[in-house]
TrEMBL record, chains A, B:
Residues 8-119 form the SnoaL-like domain. Pfam families: SnoaL_3 (PF13474). It comes from the Bacteria. The lineage of its organism: Bacteria, Bacillati, Bacillota, Bacilli, Bacillales. This is YybH family protein. Coiled coil: none annotated. InterPro entries: NTF2-like_dom_sf, SnoaL-like, Steroid_delta5-4_isomerase. NCBIfam families: SgcJ/EcaC family oxidoreductase.
């Protein structure tokens, strides 16, 4: 099952975020990927997405840890929808502890080289409607 | 903006559901589309999706009305993620009134003919994780 591939890919992407290895992280995104930085603010393309992750890392004083606790993957052809319970934690958000749970929505696309890449990264899920 | 196209397309699809015009409705889906019939039960491809809609229409004694109250669309290249507040109501569900709200997640793909078609129809959204 390709779903297992996607779970591993997302796990590897979380690892890259947690290590602040943004060179590796950018390999998980398509060239025209969109990241929802926060509701109403989108980063589009690898350069903007990288800058957003750098800003987020700074905001959390380089202590952010992201992990997906649960995941459901619906896949057909070269498209996959991932619904995930994402856990974010940081021990140094401006000197206070921080932990939150988000219901995230990701869309992946299998590119012509056979690699799944994230095209839409919406860690806010349905919070966008609020 | 193509987002407006998608809003109209989804409105037209809801109209087809409400009219039980399943010939028209199937035009909104890609050949390999997946419909989440309920958590754990998927319909794949137009033939299965059509049978699922016919069963749903029967279940509600042909009184189901679907409408999207709010919608957020994130679109890049030939892929779009739609997060919607869907309202379902029926006045004859086995002789009782019925109304519910769902936070739905749809993925659309622009096909080579330039038409957006639904590839993943998950009206349960993050309920899949429960």
């Amino acid at each position: 099952m390709q779903s297992h591939d996607l779970k591993q890919i997302i796990k590897n992407a979380d690892h890259a975020i947690n290590q602040e290895n943004f060179d590796d992280l950018m390999n998980f995104y398509s060239e025209d990927a969109i990241l929802v930085v926060k509701p109403g603010m989108l980063a589009k393309g690898k350069a903007e997405i990288r800058r957003a992750f750098e800003a987020i890392a700074n905001y959390f004083n380089h202590s952010l840890i992201v992990n997906q606790e649960k995941m459901e993957i619906i896949e057909t052809g070269d498209t996959a929808l991932v619904i995930a319970k994402a856990i974010l934690s940081a021990n140094q958000k401006k000197d206070s502890e921080f932990s939150m749970e988000r219901t995230a929505t990701y869309v992946f696309k299998k590119e012509v080289d056979g690699t799944w890449r994230c095209v839409i990264d919406n860690s806010y899920g349905a919070e966008l409607l609020q």
